[in-house]
Structures are given as structure tokens and as C-alpha cells.
Amino acid sequence: MAVGEGTMNNSLQTYQSQWNERLPALPGCKLLSWRAARQKSMERLLQIGLPTQKMETWKYTSGKLLSQRGYTLPDPACLGLDPEDLSPYLLEQQESNRLVFVNGLVAPFLSKLHDLPPGVRVESLAKVVNNAPDEWEPYLEQFLTGPDQGFSELNHALWADGAFVYLPEGSRLEKPLQLLFLTTTSQNPMMTLPWNLIIAGGNSQAVLVESYATLGQAIHFTNSYTSLVLGDKAQMRHLLLLGESPFAHHVGTLQCTQTMGSRLHSQLFSIGGKITRQDLHVTLAGTEAECSLDGLFFAKGEQHMDFHSAIHHTHSTTRSQQLYKGILDEQARGIFNGLVHVPSGVEQTQSQQTTANLLLSDRAEIDAKPQLEINSNAVQCSHGATVGSLDPEALFYLQSRGIDFATARTLLIHGFAEELLQRFSPASVREWIERSFHFGGVHA
Amino acid sequence: MKMLQINDLHVSVLHKPILCGVELTIKAGEIHAIMGPNGSGKSTLANILAGREGYQVTGGKLLFQGDNLLGMAPEERSRAGIFLSFQNPVEIPGVSNARLLKEAFNAHQRHQQLPEMDALRFRDYLQSRSQQLGLPADWLLRAVNVGFSGGEKKRNELLQMMVLAPRLAILDELDSGLDIDALAVVAAGINALRDGQRCMLLITHYSRLLQQVVPDHIHVLIDGRIVLSAGAELAVLLEERGYGWLSERVQ
Questions:
Q1: Is the Cβ–Cβ distance between B91 and B138 less than 8 Å?
Q2: CA distance A337 to A327
Q3: What does residue B84 show for φ and ψ, rounded to 5 degrees?
Q4: What are the sequence ranges of the domains in chain A?
Q5: Coil, helix or strand at residue B155
Q6: What is the pLDDT of residues A83-117, one digit of tens each?
Q7: A400 vs B94: CB contact, 8 Å cut-off?
Q8: Across the interface, do A418 and B103 touch by the CB < 8 Å criterion?
Q9: Which of A323, A395, A400, A421 to probe the B interface (max B CBs under 10 A)?
Q10: Domain at B2-250, CATH class
């Protein structure tokens, strides 16, 4: 029996009994198809189990996650949260709309949805599914396709809420929309399982900011799943900001399907959590579809961050770009695994993958692995991975100008991240990132 | 007034002696030049003054305005008024010239208990200085030394020197990588900083720079020792005869 398997079986049993207990009350369960979908996910989970170290793509992270205690699902409770409590995690009031979730459930009184264009819907998925379960039934199958992986199945079996965003054809969100997921401290460590469905119709345009944070220093587990569907020529910028407590575990999946001429710009910034695992799966399922995945992560102490991307070029003339940069201090551990898949018969695709990593301590570690599965000759494909430490020459140069060591170090770390930092907008996001950089203790 | 005082300085790198009893005194307002063949220890002397790691001082004294330099960190030496223009300035991706200059200038201001300069005024000030050196308009936004030509890197060093206004400027091979026109611009910049108080140490192989920035004293460094000191006229002699005859004389 591998490390953690015993604990895993215990926690699976716990989740199964919680599922049995709660199923009738979970969103959509009045309708057979939704109930069946949950049932199917639970059965699949019991069949495949949670990921183990034996799985190549989980070898660095599964043991750590599974050796942890069991988590309980949150109960709807009236939380005395004040909008003021949220302010550190919010984008500028004037420049964004927001839908806020507390402990996995929508918090309408903390949300702000003004002047949405006609036809645009931003709601609680639980509400949408309960009120009109058959409306979204045709999409179910599409939403549920994704990585065949225990944590996703657990999410699909047990999700209690999440965001539902619908952009009709040709619509355009002028202001960024923030989806904020907050977890509070509780007696028993909680697992929240938000499922977000985002449907961008043809020619629509939007900027979405999906952010995860903890109020206080809670121990909790976030198991999130975001399904993104981009119609023909839709343009989506999706920011994922991971800033949970240093005791939190986060397993998340972003699953995106793109059709003809659509463009996804995914931007990830990760600084929080004790153990973070984020998967990005993009399927370029239409000619001229394009995706660009940016990632910046900063880990210190005993933080562990694991990023897996998979881009499937299923159509000719599709393009993908990736730039992931990691900064690792103290005993932190980082993983970047980038899969690019081009099947035979698919031609004239372009893909670029770059990962650069900065180690600030002898004990920090990074595993950067490109994984190219190219079965077609008529493609352009490049990849590169680098690992380095701070340049002592550059440190001395800055010091020789009167800049103290700690400031010089911060300048160089900032300089390493600058290429990605300047791509983040709106400005309030960039400022938030820069602040967390400093608060995160980049200083020696 | 003595600004810099070097007495019987011995320095080794990995137990190999590089400087073997250097004596040098620079008074306020003076310009000294150190010339010598490759490997004679010129750059070691510059680096030791700026506080670079990797050298072992095995003997002697190094005083700046009466303070022992050997116990001071590089940033403390800079704030005390020492500036090294690097022979090969390092490239720093992601850090703009403006950012470096602002951080450095304000660190100096704080050290002197003076207020930090207002960001807009500082930008105007920097712009006029960089124009003076013939640097392009987008200069301040560009990353430090990244993609700069050899001449641009040297002009950038000079821009930093103008902003920090040091009491002792050590210019290590400032003339390398400069064409004649660029050398004239740089020389004019240096001469503009001569004010009777500030002192300079020019390190060079060639007399070219010394025709435009005329030093008060020239010293020849060979095998870690100053073997000859004279006035500005020595440059002409060295240009004609090289260093060979001096090496022979030492041996």
C-alpha cells in the first residue's frame, strides 16, 4: 500500500457518507439528469480513487495532500461578514462588478452587480440549476468533460454552488467581473467545492478575475472547478489569483473549450496556500483559436505549488503560448509541467512554451518539465526551461550605487517577474500583486 | 585635504598575490590616472575600493576621508561618496534605469538626512541629464544595460555618476568601447564634474582619454606595484614606448 492510501480510503468513505446524506438537497437534484451526473461522478471517484503517487502527473503532490486530515462540508450559516472585511481582496469598487462566495456559497449582500449589459447573466449556479434545471441540461455533458481525476469527480459529485456567467453573442463586459471565493475560520476544517460555469457566446468579450482568499489563518481545502466555453471569436481574459492562508490546500482545475477564432488569455498569480495544485486544460477546438497562458508564482517557507497545463490543438491553424515564472524561497517546492498535444492530421499550429524559475535559497526546489506530444510534422513548436539564482554581479552593482542588500534583492526579484507583472491589468490587480510581493516577505 | 589614502596595500585572490604594497594618496580636487598592462592589478584596485567580494586584503590600510573603508559594505562606501564606473557593467533585466537611479539617489539623500526628491521633478532632472549625454528619449524606461552597446553602457555609467555626484569617482576603462565622438561626450561630462573638490581615479590602458581629461598625476602599475609616478606628460611617453621598458627596469 502506497503512502497515504489508508488515509485516502478513510477520507473517501467520509466523503461518500457526506454525499449520501446531502444528495437530495444538493443543487439540481430535483431533476434526474443532474442527480445522475452527480451519481456518475461519485461512482467514478470510488472506482479511480483520489490521485496517488503512482500517477505520474501527481507524483509530487498526492502524498502531501492525502496525508492530511479529513474535511467536512460547510453548512449554510449566517455569517456576520461586513463588506469592509473583504476590502483587501477586492478590485477597485469603481472599476469592477463582483460576485462573492463565502465558504462555497453565494453571499448576495457582499456582491455587487450593477449595469450589466442586456442579456448578460452573473448568478449563483445553485440558484440557476434549482430554478431552471432543464435549461442547462443540454450543456451538462460538455461541462463534465475534463480530466479524469479524483478531485474533479469529487467536485462534480458534491458541488454546492459556484458562479454562473453567461455572455450572449456579441456582448461585451466593460468592467472586469470579479468572482471572489472566501473561506472563514471554522471549528472543523472545511472543504469547499465551487463549480463555475462560464459561457461566452460568439464575439463576446470579457475580463474575469477569479480570486481565492482566506479570512484569517484557517486550515481548509478548496477543490474548485471552472468550466469555460468560448464561442466563435469570443475574447476572454481570465485572471486566477490564488492567495489563501498559509495553512490552506487548494486543488483547482480550469477547463476551457475554444471554438473558431476565439482567444483566451489566462493569467495566474499564486502566492498563498500551503499546498496548491492547479490544472489548466485548454482544447483549441476550432481553426484560428488561440490561447495564451501566463503564470507567476511565489512560494516560500514550506509552500508547495504544482502547476499542470495541457493544451490540445485538435484543429489546424491554432496557436498557443505559455510563459510561467516561479520564484522559490526557503524550503519551497515548485512544479511546472506543460503538455502540448498536436494529433496527426492537424497542421499549421504554433506553440511556444517557456518556463523560467528563480531559486532564492539552496533548499528551494523546482521541477520544470515540458511534455510535447506532437504527432504532426507541419507545426511550429518551441519550448524552453531555465532555473537560476540571483546574479551576485547584479547585486553588487546595485549595492555599489548605494542601494542596501535587501532592497537590491527585492529589485532583482521584481525585475525577474516584471515581464509578467506588466501584463496584468486592471491596475488594481497589478498593485495587489506587487503589494503581496512585498508583504509576502521578498525582503531578506 | 587627503581624500583617499592607500598605504602598503596587499591583496590576494585565491591566495595568489595581486597587489603587493600599493601606496597612493589622492587629495581633494585631484585627478589621478593609473596605467599599466593587462593583469597588472588595476581593476583589482578599483574593485577593492568599491567593496567587491572575492578578494583577501592581507595587509595595509585603506582610508577614505579618514574612515577605514575595509569595514564598510559596498552601499556604505557609495553613500560615503565613492563611485565605481564598471569596466563591464552588468545587465539587469526587468529593472529600469529610472528605478535604479531613483532608489540609489534616495538612498544617498536619506543617508545625508535630506528629503527624497519628488518623482516628477526627479524625472525631469534625469531626462535633461540623459539628453546631455546623447542618450535616447526612452532611455530611462529601458532595463539597466540590457541590449546596450558598449558605448551606451559607458554613457549610462556616467549618467549614474552625474546623478550621485560622488566625492571620489573611480573610472575603470571608461574609454573602452567608445568611438572618438562618444569619448568626447564622455570626457566633457567628466570635465564638467571637476570642481576643485571632487577627485577621480582614471584607470586606463591608453592615453587617449588622458588627452581630453588631463590628470594631475599618472601612476604606472606593474605586477601589483606602482613603479613610476609622474605628471600628465608621462602619458605621451607611455604612448610612444609602451610598458616593456618599465617591466624590464622593475626586474
A1: no
A2: 16
A3: -110, 120
A4: 5-286, 391-444
A5: helix
A6: 788 888 888 766 789 999 999 999 998 999 988 99
A7: no
A8: no
A9: A400
A10: alpha beta
